[in-house]
Amino acid sequence: MKRKLTLWLAVVMAVMSMGIATAVAEEAAPTEYTAFAMLNGEYALGDTLAWKTWEDMFNIHVEIESVLGADLTEKRNLVLASGEYPDIFIKAGLGMSDLTKYGTQGLFVPLQDMIREQMPNLTAILDERDAWDYMMSSDGNIYSLPEISLLGGANGTYWINKKWMDTLGLEEPKSFDELYEVLRAFKTGDPNGNGEADEIPLFCVSNYDQLLSYADFAYDASTKTALIDGVLTYIPTTDYYKEFLGDIAALFAEGVLDPNVLTQTGEQQAAIGQSGDVMGSFFDAGAFLTVGRDNDDDYILLTPFQEGTYPLTIGVTPGTFVVTDYCENVEPLLAAMDYFYSEEGGILAWMGVEGETYEIGEDGDWRWIVGTGYGDDVQAVRSSNTIQGAANHPSIQPDFWFTNMSAEVDPDEVYLNGERAKAADMGVVPLPMMSYTDEENEEIATIKTDVDAYINQYVAQVFTGAVTLEDSWDSYVSTLNNMGLERLIEIYQDVYARAIAE
């Protein structure tokens, strides 16, 4: 009996040990996911130091299919249409219409309840900014995680050549009339001093209307509307726009506005900007992206002409991270992703790992570490080791990024941050969150496509002299109304009324 009992206990202990070992092994095994993501330039998101560090912290592994930015939309849509899609889409350029479309089809998982349950950091931010509605699709669901950034310009940042103004003895313009005179002086005054008329006073890639950021109303570029005297007004059919268009057409006729504005592509902007000292003013997220890091401090962000009208975003961009219906174990994934919405996690996402990709000096400021295996210049370090890149990403931009960035290592970024803050301090978010129903979205998509195309066509005709502004304006407005513009405006006004009534 004693021997049988001993054998029985040995078997039990062996089985228990195997069970414990299995449980330990299962506990140690990482949770696996599949994903689709845009490349960080030439670098895969899954290979970046920040992403690998996050995976190790939370015992997660994500097998990521990476695609070039130029192929992103086409390949993403093909993957979704195939039915063989991954667990997650990260940095995949998904807009609100995409989220609504695939969410209502059941491909994307509603996340609002799990965000509140599993993501205290993100929940606190959305509560603080009252930004839940900005994440919500028309069916009332939230299908994505956002990028959270500081309030910033909603339209393209307008950079003007301060060096040229100083050379010509000009002050920074404080009105449209003064701006036009400065640009004309750039054209005729040889500010680059080479004796040639090679200056491009105003460079545009079909985005001249972003100058409306400096209007005396807060212009919302997505709807082409602004709140004027308490009424949501469609700007391209107003007398204000007629006068504005006339002024821009005059600049085009004089060669002040780049004559290639109607055909120029964004890819050509940096090539032209870095070909020599030729750019008088242009739109870009940062001046160095167009004219290079050696010349960007020749340019200033044109200060808004008045307080309270420069259009800002709320700093919450949805669509950076979605979970599909193929994904299992969604809750632990979201709990891990919540780290990126803390100050520490934001630092990891934006800056990488202290001592590896950045260091903090005795003065408390941080600096990039270059030339030690993680990249020989700042751009390489950022692209290969953070989760930043050309697309919005799921994280919060940390306060430390702005408050403690050293000008020694990246003076261009420090300069850019200061210039952006100058405009943001004078700005305002133009509209409340505009939540559209599915039916409204469908109507808007149908009408807006034709209306926007016709506006572009009409502007081209005015610029080239095919029609005169004065003789054609009434016909232009009438044509837009026949295309359904009045119904489009009615939808915008109805949605705005709902938004302010809530």
UniProtKB/TrEMBL annotation:
InterPro entries: Bact_solute-bd_prot1 (IPR050490), SBP (IPR006059). Keywords: Cell membrane, Lipoprotein, Membrane, Palmitate, Signal. Transmembrane segments: none annotated. PANTHER family: ARABINOSE-BINDING PROTEIN-RELATED (PTHR43649), POLYGALACTURONAN_RHAMNOGALACTURONAN-BINDING PROTEIN YTCQ (PTHR43649:SF33). It holds the Pfam family SBP_bac_1. This is Extracellular solute-binding protein. Residues 1-23 form the signal peptide.
